[in-house]
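Q: My labmate handed me this sequence with no annotations at all. I'd like to see what the chain might look like in three dimensions before we decide whether it's worth expressing. Could you predict it?
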Amino acid sequence: MVCGDDIIIFSDKNITWPESTDNISELAWKRWYNRAIEESVKKIRKADTSIRKNPQAIFADAKCEHRIPIELPPIDRRRVHGICVTTGGEQAASSYFDDPDGTFMIMPFLRGKDHVDFTRPHHMPFCIGDVDPDGPFVHVFNMATLDVVMSEFDTITDFTKYLNARADIIRSGRLSFSPSETEMVANYLQTIGPDGEHRFPMTSDVRGAKFDSDMAIAFVQGEYACLVHSPEYQRREAANRTSYEWDRLIGFFTHHVLNGTQFRILDTDPTVELAERGLRIMAREDRVQRRALASAIIGARKALEEQKAGRLTRIAVTRDRSTNEKVAYVFLVLAGANSMEQESYRRVRAMILETYCLATLHDDCDIKLCVGIAVMAISEEGESEDLIAIPQQKWTPKDIEELSVARKNFDVLQKPLKLKTIPFHVHATSFPPDPAFEGMSRQQRRALERQRAKQQGRVR
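A: Here is what I predict for the chain of 460 residues:
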């Protein structure tokens, strides 16, 4: 899996615990660890070496006939993550810790062979730290913890950000202990830096605490359970529902690309490479960005109905979450699908969409790529969406003249646009604020919080 500068290599193993789960011996742990985890570590390191030496030998099919249609990031910028998914030891772990969770504890002081060295102070089985300190960081999950991680960070950008932060805190020495992966997730989600991005807490976040450079933090059991039952988490879930329209569009376009059922537009035969250019940018949007982008599309479709208009367009200019390059999205809603032949309707819609995209690129040459998405009006029957992605180009006098004619013919952006980059992540956060606090001063918010705490019997 590749996302920007991040490469993720998976290895999964189902290894049955070698003895009765009532007998968690040193030998049983060593045997299970070597087969379930150490062998995966070796495979991940071998795969990383192979990618470095022969990046052309990566194929999308078992017969090795079709190379993956993407370029790998340069080695000097590349961040490789190994993910070892291991199953078979859950019941033994549950028995050992007398805890139904059955997942690994996180102990960063364990490095490499330390995991099977019972002479190490505080060593216990089913505790994981840095399993391959000399190679790419390998994250060890079982299916339960992987499900939590991938459900909470369900875009590739959110997922890789968590993996990067997780690898950093474990290897940095800033974390001493976490009782489970879910508590890692809870602490990451509940900590937001000045830039609006999630991160793990640091000792300096503890107000009034005296600490030195050697001090590390520890997480406690139960934080994730409290988080998922909190009003803040429920607001986050509600805010995310809109964003799933963006996911639906990605799935819709991908389905037709993989099945060869794309509609031919702009006199161009559809190819995987052409579609992948736009889909890659769409897929790199994180969950908060997807809320804003999906809201723009949904809002445009609703506005078209309310205004009883023939077409409506919205343009969003943002940054590629991987390269930080300027990217534009053009969302076009066009009525008329029920009054025209499908082929004529799709052809006209694609031409208008292309004109909007080219005009956007021409009016702001800092934009590196313009992704156009065209949809039908809500009130019309059927379903059809078009996707195009046009990179920035060197504008010749002929190009400018042709664009000028198209702008006039389709009445598109007759005046040059002054586009501003919209920092979506500044206006929206993963956890939306309580609407009850809207318009209140800081003192008023604190007074309301104290009142609520008293009502719940939790006086602060």
